[in-house]
Amino acid sequence: MRLTVIGCGYVGLVTGACLAAAGHDVFCTDIDENRIDLLKAGKVPIYEEHLDAVLQRAARENKIVYTSDAGEAIRAGEVIFICVGTPPKDSGEADLSAIDHVARQVATEARSPKLVVEKSTVPALTGVQLQKALAAYSPAGGIKFQVASNPEFLREGTAVADFFHPDRIVVGVEDEKSAATLREIYRPILEKKFHCPIHNGKCPGSTSGELLVTTISSAELIKHASNSFLALKISYANVIADLCERIGADVEEVTHAMGLDPRIGTQFLKAGLGFGGFCFPKDIQAFIHLSAAVGVEFDMLKAAERVNKQRIDRFFEKVHKALWVIRGKRVAVLGLAFKANTDDIRFAPALEVIRRLVEEGAEVHATDPQAIARTKHCFPNVAYFDDPYEALKGVDAALVCTEWPVFRDLDWAKAGHLMSRRLVIDGRNLYSSKKMQSLGFDYYSFGRS
Ligand code: UDX
């Protein structure tokens, strides 16, 4: 099938690449011409495992085309996936101006009927507005557009693997024809008929995931309800960690045992600096906002958001306790990305940590396997090191902000010799307290004594 992807960010590029791998002809467009030029030159503007290989293969097989001419891309596809950003406004409400812009573009540029699919995360009832905008801007109402919602559940860092091996594919539709079209688009993924870069070509087993057909409003709600629930789970674990510190219990022992109950599950109970990234913080805000707008107070989400914001305060309580005065101290920040295996620093706790360290007069040494280039734009005066051991030379303390494997595997015996003082404040509970203490470190983490 011929598919158009509007927006070449994390979601759009992964969607375009993986749908091309599924055998479709994909036309990608973006208003950022530099990004399109980079893609045409065979470069990938973001770091996402396997994306490079999937895009290269799609280009070799002539399955993917990039163009900055949105009209050309819109006319080329039978189905249009909207993958543009929906950032938060100051009020927390999702800013849907990019979606509105695309709707007007599709309506005016299309010359034949299209199925227009929302893939960007949007609040419930956006589909209704999208349908209205498409009808309103179509010249003389001449072209019939169908709308569908197909939320993504991709985690950054494992987005390609998630796309190819979904737990579920949700399609919210208005009619059976749209459901059949989307089922056809995803058939190669569900039947594992694509070249899988993770499994060297062929995935084990014959089918994966389940395609669920719902109403558009349900599909929109499923996305926000899922992300907000996961965010709630993390904040819950973080409050348990605070309790553990007061009581003298160990949060890892508590959450591990809790998680063995299949009704709870072990995932997303990791205590620490809390959640960041471009999804959870904005989705939880947008969901609170949407709920209030329709007269439902979602107080528990407000509490989860408050707990998350306070994680940095809790972290700095530890930093002050351990380091006493920050002014004039040299401090290493290990990890800048909001989580491991990505170069994304949007709403990353590490940025707020650096901001406060700089404000309090510390000299910051920062290191990260992928996110240095992006962070340099925000903090040009911080010293950056590719090698974590270089970053640790002569520092009074190391602050761990991201759970990268390279930090988990650091040789602290070696690092201890490089540091001015053996002090580690771990925002991700990466190390055994006993081991760090046996190496002579003053070691602080979350929810463990
Ligand atoms: C999330 C959803 O998981 C994905 O389904 C959705 O489509 C997009 O948003 P992502 O933002 O890539 O994906 O990150 P995720 O792996 O879910 O982690 C989110 C944040 O929570 C990270 O900052 C992570 O460090 C933090 N986290 C996660 C915790 O603090 N504790 C945990 O136990 C798990």
- Average pLDDT: 96
Which kinds of small molecule does this entry bind, naming each only once? uridine-5'-diphosphate-xylopyranose
**Helix fraction bin:** 40-55%
Percent in strands: 5-15%
Count of discrete domains: 3
The name of the CATH superfamily of the largest domain reads NAD(P)-binding Rossmann-like Domain
CATH domain class name of the largest domain: Alpha Beta
Estimated radius of gyration:
23 Å
**Bulk shape:** globular
Biggest beta-sheet profile:
6 strands, parallel
Strand order of the largest sheet: 3-2-1-4-5-6
* Spatial separation of the terminal alpha carbons: 57 Å
Describe this structure in words.
This protein has 449 residues and is of the alpha/beta class. It folds into 3 domains: 2-214, NAD(P)-binding Rossmann-like Domain (Rossmann fold, 3-Layer(aba) Sandwich), CATH 3.40.50.720; 223-306, N-(1-d-carboxylethyl)-l-norvaline Dehydrogenase, domain 2, CATH 1.10.1040.10; 312-444, NAD(P)-binding Rossmann-like Domain (Rossmann fold). Helix content is 45%, strand content 13%. The strands form 3 sheets. Strands 3-2-1-4-5-6 form a 6-stranded parallel β-sheet, sandwiched between helices. The chain has a 6-stranded parallel β-sheet with strand order 11-10-9-12-13-14. Helix 8 (176-190) links the parallel strand 7 and strand 8 (211-214). It is globular. The mean pLDDT is 96. Uridine-5'-diphosphate-xylopyranose binds next to helix 9. Uridine-5'-diphosphate-xylopyranose is lined by residues 152-156, 227, 230, 234, 268-270, 272, 274-277, 279-280, 338-339.
